[in-house]
Amino acid sequence: MSFRSVLILSTVLAAWSAAASAEAIKIGVTPGPHAQILEAVKPIAAKSGLDIQLVEFSDYVVPNAALDAGDIQANSFQNQPYLDNQKADRGYKIEAVGLTVNFPIGVYSKKHKNWADIPDGGKVSIPNDPTNGGRVLLLLRDKGVIKLKDGVGFKPTVLDITDNPKKLKFIEVDAAQAPRALDDVDAAAINTNYTTQAGLDPVKDPILREDPKGPYVNLIAVRAADKDKPWVKILVDSYHTPEVKEFVLTKFKGAVLPSW
């Protein structure tokens, strides 16, 4: 056998051995930026022996249920207040292991170019889950649209509104259905990953937009029993690389912000 043949065979065997020894994990994501960013993470993690397989979920409820049940090994779609709420309500033993990105939430309208054009008694849709719905109410409070009770924390509800000068009617909808509500309301609060799917620009199109601050940074979550496993460190370290940061900044142009 020639030296060249031996070299080729050795290379093939080394590649096969690396592939065979790679640890495979399933990560739950929502469609859009979360999935796109993890696609950029995959080849980086593969160099350290971690084979990432993405599983897309169309809503915010199932990924934690799937993680808690062991159907997936991690997820990347939520912020800490949402995770805390899910754990309190459902008893999940899930922990955050690393920060990812921030998606400043926005309020959009097909009928009005500016928030000032929203009429008295106008209909405004907000997400029906406590974390994202509360997040929108805090946004409206910060912009002077409504007032809320003192001490409401991060999860106020419409029952906590103490002053509503425009007498706005708040309609709660599933976060994934918010883009569809645009035709039926004066304005709709929509999470960034769903705006991009609907063809909206989360930087240029909102008539109100959240300041990129506070606790709403997204995260990677795993089961508490897994948080110290070696693959978790590889996953987080692969995400927290200059290459991924550059991908986020270039791909999303300010609609999604790196938070590590």
Automatic annotation (TrEMBL):
Subcellular location as annotated: Membrane
Q: Which residues cross the membrane?
A: none
Q: Give the range the annotation lists for the signal sequence.
A: 1-22
Pfam families found in the cross-reference section: Lipoprotein_9
Q: How does it sit in the membrane?
A: Lipid-anchor
What family name appears in the similarity comment? Answer: Belongs to the NlpA lipoprotein family.
Write the protein's name: Methionine ABC transporter substrate-binding protein
Which source organism does the UniProt entry give? Bradyrhizobium iriomotense
